[in-house]
Amino acid sequence: MRIKNWLEIRIGLDDLIRTQLTEYRVPRNLNITYTFGFVALIAFLIQTATGVLLLFYYIPHSETAFRSVQDLTSKVPYGWLFRQIHVVTSSLMIVMVLLHALSVFFLGGYKKPRELTWISGTFMLLITVTFCLSGYLLPWSQLSYWATTIATTMPTAFPYVGDMLAKLMKGSEQVSGLTLNRFFALHVMLLPFILAIILSLHLFLVRRIGISSPPFGKSAEAEKPWTGYRHESYPNGYPFFPDFVLKETIMTMVFCAAIFFCITFLPTLFLPEEANIPADPYKTPAHIKPEWYLLAPYQMLKIIPNKFLGVSLQLILLLIFISWPFLDTQEEKNILKRPRLLGLFFFSLILWLVFTLWGKYS
Amino acid sequence: MRYPLALLIILMLSSATLGGWKEDFEKAFLTRPWTGVQAPGDVCIECHASDMMKPEIRDIPQKWKTSWHYQNGISCHNCHGGDPKDAANAMSPQRGYAGTPKYTQVPEFCGKCHVGILKNFLESGHGRALKSSGKGPNCVTCHESHNIQKASINIINERLCAKCHSYERVKIMKQALFVTENKMNEIDKGLKELKAEGVFTEEEEKNLFNTQAEFRILFHTEDVSLVRKRTDEFGHKLNQINVKIQKTFEELRFRRNFSGFLMMIFVGMAIGFLLLSRRPKE
Questions:
Q1: In this structure, are residues B191 and B205 in contact, taking their beta carbons and an 8 Å threshold?
Q2: How many structural domains are present in chain B?
Q3: What residues in B contact A307, CB-CB < 8 Å?
Q4: For B259, which of A247, A263, A272 is closest by C-beta distance?
Q5: CA torsion angle for B152, B153, B157, B161 (degrees, to 10)?
Q6: C-alpha distance from B169 to closest chain A C-alpha (Å)
Q7: Are residues B175 and B281 in the same domain?
Q8: Interface contact B10, partner A, CB < 8 A
C-alpha cells in the first residue's frame, strides 16, 4: 500500500490505471483475432528472455559456436528447455505476426487513418523474418550453415549490386566466421534496437488513433469521415481491463501451450538431425532448403528461369504488400462486400501455401 | 489501382529485359548449391566416369559412391594421391600421384591411414603368407577395393574364407568376436536413435569408434586366445558407453514429461481464464 501511495504521488497511478485500463473502452464486437498482435508481442518478450539466457553460454565464434550450443543443450541445467523454447517460439512468432497481418487485412484495419500502423506492422514482419534468419545461423550446424548459404545467395540475382549485397551480408565469398559475427551482431544488437523503435511507434499509433473496430458489427463512430485527427473511442464498449485483457491472457496461455506441445510431441520439428552436425563448408547436404517461412520465395525463385525477374517480382510484391493502404483507396471496409478483394486475399493466401508446400516437397 | 498496375508491368518488363543482359551472372547463379546443381569439383571422378574409359574403370566412381569411404569424405586422391582440381596434372607424380599399388603392396597402401591394422596384419598368418609367397590375401581380398563397406562381422563368412582354407578355424574366431560385435551394433543402433531425436552424440560416437577400431586391429592378428582374453576389457568399455546412452534416453523421457507437464499447466490456465471471462457481470 505504501508503494502504491508512493507511486500515486509521483506518477498518478490511479489516474493512469483508470484512463489506460479500466475506463479505456474497446468495441463490443472485438473477436479473438484482435489478440494476435498482443500474442506476437508476448512471443517477442519470450524470445528476449530466453535469448538472454542462451547468451550466458553461447560463444559467437565459428570454432566454438556449435560446441557451446551443444553443451548448453546437454550440460547446462534446463539449457535444453530454454533453447527449445527459443527455437520453437521463433517459428510460432512468425506464425502469430503473419496471422495478425492477415486478420488486419481481412478486417480492413489498414484503412485511413491507420496507414502508418500497417506500414510499421509490415516492417515488423520483415524484421521478425530477419531476426529468425540471422538467429538460424548462430548454432553453426550443417542445417543452419547451408540454409544461410541459400538465403545469402538469393540477393546475387540482382545484376551489378547483387554480388556486393551478398558479400555485405556474408563478409566474405562464402558463409564463414565473418558471416557468423555479422549475423550475431544483427541478431542481438541491431535488430532488437530497430524493433524496439518500430514497436514503440506501432503501439503508440494503436493507442493514439484507437483500436479499429471490426467492419462486421455496428459502430456509428467508425462511420464518421476522417477529415481531421480524432481518437476513435467506444463509450459503449467493453473496458480494456479486465474484459479484453482476459481475452489476451487466454490466447497467451494457448500460445504457450502450443510452444510446449511442439517441444513435447514434435521435439525434432525445428531441430532435426542435421541441426546436431557441425557446419562443414566442404560437405553439401543432399537436400538443402531454407526455413519454412522462406520456402515460398525460394520455390518461386527456383521455378522462374530468370533469377533477376524472380527476385524483382518478389520485391515488387513486397512493395505492394507494404503500400497496400495507399493502393486500396476504396472506403468500404467490409471485405465481404468486395468480392474481388476477397478473391485476391484467398488467392494470395493459397498461392503462398502452395509455393511453401511445393518448396518443401520438391 | 491503374497506376500501380502499370508500374508493376513496367518494372516486370524492365526486369525481364535487364535479366537477359548478364548471361555470365546467370550461369554463376545457377551453379550455386541451393539451386541443386553442384559445382564441378573432382576431375578424377569426371574423367573416370566418362565414356572414353573402359567399362571396368568407368564403374569405379559408381562403386566408390556406395562405399564407406565415400560416406566419410574419403576421395580418390586420399588414397591414390594426385591433384583432383587440375585435370592436366591430376596424375602427375609431382602432385603426389601414387597410382595403383602392386598386389603385395596393398597393405602398405591402405596402412597409410589404417596404421594399427597394418602392423597386426603383417604379423599375422595372412600377412606373412602374402609377404613370403606373394599369394596370401591382402586387404581387398576381404574388403574389396572401391566399394568398401563398413567393417562388420559378416565379412567373415564361409564363402569368402573357404576360398583359401577350411572354415572351421575361422568359425572359432567368429564366435569369439560375436559378443563384442553384437554389443557394438546395439550401441550403434542406440546412437542412431539418439541422433534422430536430435541429440549430439559426438563423444559417444568417438568412444565407440575408438573401441571398434581397437577391436578390429586386434582381430587382424588372427589370434583367437588374444581376442578372448581381451573380450572383457572391450565389454567393459562398451558398457560404459551404453550406460551413457541409456542415461541420455532417460533424460529425453524426463524432458518430454517435463514439457508435457508445462503444457498441461498452460492448458489449465487457459481454461481457468476462459471460465473467468464467462463469469456473469454484475
A1: yes
A2: 3
A3: 19, 26, 29-30
A4: A263
A5: 80
A6: 42
A7: yes
A8: no
* Core vs surface per residue A135-171: b (16+ CB within 10 A) or e: bbbbbbbbbbbbbbbbbbbbbbbbbeebbebbeebbb
ipTM of this complex prediction, to 2 decimal places:
0.91
Q: Is B225 an 8 Å CB contact of chain A?
A: no
Q: Which three cell numbers mark A124? A: 515488423
Using CA atoms, how far residue A166 sits from A145, A150, A172, B95, B252, in Å, is 15, 11, 9, 35, 40
Check A159 against B16: CB less than 8 A apart: no
What residues form DSSP beta bridges with A141?
A278
List per-residue pLDDT tens for chain A, 362 residues long.
799 999 999 999 999 999 989 999 998 888 899 999 999 999 999 999 999 999 999 999 999 999 999 999 989 999 999 999 999 999 999 999 999 999 999 999 999 899 999 999 999 999 999 999 999 999 999 999 998 988 888 788 777 888 888 899 999 888 999 999 999 999 999 999 999 999 999 999 999 999 888 887 655 455 677 788 888 888 888 899 999 999 999 999 999 999 999 999 999 999 988 888 899 887 778 777 888 998 998 888 888 878 788 888 888 999 999 999 999 988 888 899 999 999 999 999 999 999 999 999 88
Which chain B residue lies closest to A306 (C-alpha atoms)? B19
Other CB atoms closer than 10 Å to residue B139's CB: what's the count? 23
Q: Which residue range forms the structural domain that includes residue B185?
A: 171-282
Residue A23 lies in a domain: no
Judge contact between B69 and B114, C-beta under 8 A. no
At CB < 8 A and 24+ separation, what contacts does B179-188 make? B179/B231, B179/B235, B180/B215, B180/B231, B180/B234, B180/B235, B180/B238, B181/B152, B181/B153, B183/B235, B183/B238, B183/B239, B183/B242, B184/B208, B184/B211, B184/B212, B184/B215, B184/B238, B185/B152, B186/B242, B187/B238, B187/B241, B187/B242, B187/B245
Residue B181 lies in a domain: yes
Residue A80 lies in a domain: yes
What is the CATH number for A82?
A: 1.20.810.10
What would the grid cell of residue B112 be?
597409410
Residues of A in contact with B22 (CB under 8 A): 159
Write phi, then psi, for A39 (nearest 5 degrees): -65, -40
How many domains is chain A built from?
A: 1
> Distances from the Cα of A324 to the Cαs of A22, A194, A216, A316, in angstroms?
34, 23, 21, 12
